[in-house]
# Entry
Amino acid sequence: PVEQVKATTSRLASIAKEATTQAVMTEKMEAVMAEVIDFKGFSARTLKGAWARLKPAQQTRFEGAFRGLVMTTYARRFKPGATFRVTVRGETVFTDAPQATVKTTIHGEKAAADVDYLFAPVTQGGAVTWRAVDIVVDEVSMARNWRRQFKRILKRDGFDVLVQKIEKKAAKR
# Structure
């Protein structure tokens, strides 16, 4: 996982530096991030118990909306033309569960933020590969943070309203 993070963040830094608009940058970043993030696993982790109760079509719909939200939230942290560098603070592979964490710090022109990636093994095309299933920014888990919000909306308004709200928020690219 640490090599994936190094390669991905290097590509993201190039995209941000060369980008002229937020929309173009976000689109290019999404293509790169799709290679390292397991959006289905991230979705399931975010909805936790509610995920298993969704029908396959609902899971697919949620995953698509959630992907947009993750990318909008992540890419919004970078400005077109900005430069940044990433340092790896460490990697932890857990022996009691098939997970790994890669800890990084993103150093921007004016500030720095700790961005940690939680990885899990995923089988793709018969091969097992590591993919990120959560991103933790300055000790705040995206999955856990959204889980609380989404749980309230699901309970109060239902699945369709939740997805509509996510799609609306993600559209603010």
The helical segments are 2-18, 22-33, 39-47, 49-53, 56-75, 142-157, 159-170. The radius of gyration is 16 Å. The longest strand covers residues 112-124. The mean pLDDT is 92.
